[in-house]
Amino acid sequence: MRFTKMQGAGNDYIYVDCFAQSVPNKVAELARQVSDRHFGIGADGLILICPSERADAEMRMFNADGSTAEMCGNGIRCVAKYVYEHDIARRNTLRIESAGRVFELELSTRKGLVERVRVDMGEPILTANKIPTTLAGEPVADVPLALPNRDLVVTCVSMGNPHCVTFVDELSEELVHTVGPLVENHAHFPQRVNVEFVQRIGRDEVRQRTWERGSGETLACGTGAAAVCVAGVLTGRTDRRVTIHLLGGDLQLEWNEQDNHVYMTGPAVEVFSGEWPVAE
User: Fold this and answer.
1) Which of 216, 214, 206, 213 is nearest to 177 (CA)?
2) How many angstroms separate the CA atoms of 142 and 74, rounded?
3) Helix (H) or strand (E) holding 262
4) What is the mean pLDDT of the chain?
5) Dihedral-angle region of residue 122 (phi above 0 means left; psi in -120 to 50 means alpha; beta otherwise)
6) Domains (ranges, CATH) in the chain?
7) What is the sign, positive or negative, of the torsion defined by CA atoms of 50, 163, 30, 15?
8) Alpha helices in the chain (DSSP H)
9) pLDDT over 70 percentage in the chain
10) Contact assessment for residue 82 and residue 49, using Cβ atoms and an 8 Å cutoff
């Protein structure tokens, strides 16, 4: 099986071009194997780039533990880069399908290569049962979440996948790696949840670390950054345009007041290509 490893702000995935080859068998198990950073290629998950009847391509995403995911902002930017640079669709505006939704992406190119991509992430989902969460509130903004030996104040947003955002005074390993898994698997989140820990720098600038559902901590999370942008506005902490500093780099986010859509701009980088042995 031929593959390409790509990353957006350090959020790395293994990409398989299913225009040029068949969809692999046992994809969930394959995702676990290739994502392993000691015995595999090493990645936050596996993404299949497939033909679509509604768009230029379809993104099918699997987390490092083999579970499926609805959307990944960093991943979809890399899909757009691959689609453009590998001549699947050579246009500066592309439409990519993911989990039944179609996303529009604007590509910034130089000398035939994609350097940055702006993604229309769509409207945030703020209704509790659609996020989903059983926490109270419409929206679920700055509500208490009880954990063993700790209470958090959280804001919940879906960008096609569920996010729980908490603003903290200081980011720490203990928060991300100890509290993150507790929140991910909390009973208030029936489909588990991605967890964002956010340190506010100013009204237009924050730092973010993410404990990602099914993958653990990742260097960046695009849908998480979109959720942070929305949560900052809902709770009065940030403006509608914000630069978000992640471990893997920076993303620019805007929650547009006119159309209610969230727009994300960031890099997309091809790392290397290779072949993975697949049993017949």
Assistant:
1) 216
2) 27
3) strand 262-267
4) 96
5) left
6) 2-121+267-275 (3.10.310.10), 128-259 (3.10.310.10)
7) positive
8) 27-35, 73-85, 173-174, 180-184, 222-234
9) 99
10) yes
Give Cβ neighbours of residue 280 (< 8 Å, ≥ 6 apart): none
- Regions in the chain scoring below 70 on pLDDT: 279-280
Q: How far apart are CA 263 and CA 54, in angstroms?
A: 21
- Give the closest residue to 270 by CA, choosing from 14, 2, 1, 70: 14
Single-letter residue type at 25: N
Residue 280's pLDDT is what? 58
Residue 135: how many other CB atoms lie within 10 Å = 18
Sign of CA dihedral 267, 123, 203, 223: negative
Which amino acid, 16?
Answer: V
Which among 81, 75, 62 is positioned nearest to 270, based on CA atoms?
A: 81
Q: Angle at the Cα of 17 (from 14 to 22), degrees rounded to 5?
A: 115
Q: Which residues are catalytic?
A: 72, 221
Q: Give the residue among 218, 163, 252, 177 at the shortest CA–CA distance from 10.
A: 218
- Rounded Cα distance between 163 and 40, Å, is 28
* CA angle, 75 then 176 then 45, to 5°: 25
Q: Which of 82, 73, 153, 161 lies closest to 118, judged by CA?
A: 73
pLDDT digits over 89-118, tens only? 999 999 999 999 999 999 999 999 999 999
Which three-class secondary structure state does DSSP give residue 31?
helix
In terms of Cα–Cα distance, which of 264, 190, 201 is closest to 237? 201
Residue of 197, 204, 184 lying closest to 244 (CA atoms): 204
d(Cα 141, Cα 164) in Å, to the nearest integer?
10
Measured CA to CA, the distance from residue 208 to residue 247 in angstroms comes to 8
Token pair of 256 as six digits:
């547009």
